[in-house]
Amino acid sequence: KNQVEQSPQSLIILEGKNCTLQCNYTVSPFSNLRWYKQDTGRGPVSLTIMTFSENTKSNGRYTATLDADTKQSSLHITASQLSDSASYICVVSVWGNKLVFGAGTILRVKS
Amino acid sequence: EPEVTQTPSHQVTQMGQEVILRCVPISNHLYFYWYRQILGQKVEFLVSFYNNEISEKSEIFDDQFSVERPDGSNFTLKIRSTKLEDSAMYFCASRLIGGEAFFGQGTRLTVV
């Protein structure tokens, strides 16, 4: 069964600190993995996309890693800001057109 | 920048009534999706649509749901007889083959 598991469920950090969110997946056949940021009451917005051959990709203060052997991905946020408070969702694309969503990690950055 | 637009942003309906949620996907996209997110829960897949037909649907997408692309630009989700448990945010998404899925801002459906 195609599944995406994320941890932690929620996280509170101080402004300026770094954090790392985890995503484990059992999806086959794997096409790619994306991290989305979802602000409360809004649609998810893509942060990064990782394909099978990519290990690391950065987008500003966001750095995603992918280990296709262990089927794990992480999203590292550097120097967090209050505006980073959101839900971060790992979405794995099955070859074809299906997207499998994780439950998300709710991040709260406080001053 | 092209975007997926959804209307209305908020819909309140009485239990048993029919609702139609509307989406305008990005114009050159080929795959269209509906997802829902019950408050505090994960995003759940409802249905995907390609080449003018449903390509995949989840067990949530039962006979009370239907989708249509009536005019080549709109993509609609109809819920025939709404139930209280249908209250959720409904997101439309579109993408090219193998491309990133772009999501609309969602329609908040409240069934009373």
How would you describe this structure in keywords?
heterodimer, A: 111 residues, mainly beta, six-stranded mixed β-sheet, five-stranded antiparallel β-sheet, 11 strands, B: 112 residues, seven-stranded mixed β-sheet, four-stranded antiparallel β-sheet
Structure in words:
The complex is a heterodimer of chains A (111) and B (112). Helices cover 0% and strands 61% of the residues of chain A. Chain A is mostly beta strands and 111 residues long. The model of chain A has no long low-confidence stretch (mean pLDDT 91). Chain B is mostly beta strands. Chain B is 0% helix and 51% strand. Chain B contains no helices and eleven strands. Chain B is globular, with a radius of gyration of 13 Å. The relative contact order of chain B is 0.34. At the A-B interface, strand 4, strand 5, strand 9 and strand 10 of A face strand 4, strand 5, strand 9 and strand 10 of B.
List the helices and strands and how they pair.
The complex is a heterodimer of chains A (111) and B (112).
Chain A: E1 3-7, E2 10-14, E3 19-26, E4 30-38, E5 45-51, E6 56-59, E7 62-67, E8 72-77, E9 86-94, E10 99-101, E11 105-110
Chain B: E1 5-7, E2 10-13, E3 19-24, E4 31-37, E5 43-50, E6 53-57, E7 65-68, E8 75-79, E9 88-95, E10 102-103, E11 107-111
Parallel strand pairs in B: 2-11
Antiparallel strand pairs in B: 1-3, 3-8, 4-5, 4-9, 5-6, 7-8, 9-10, 9-11
Short recap of the structure:
The complex is a heterodimer of chains A (111) and B (112). Chain A is an all-beta fold.
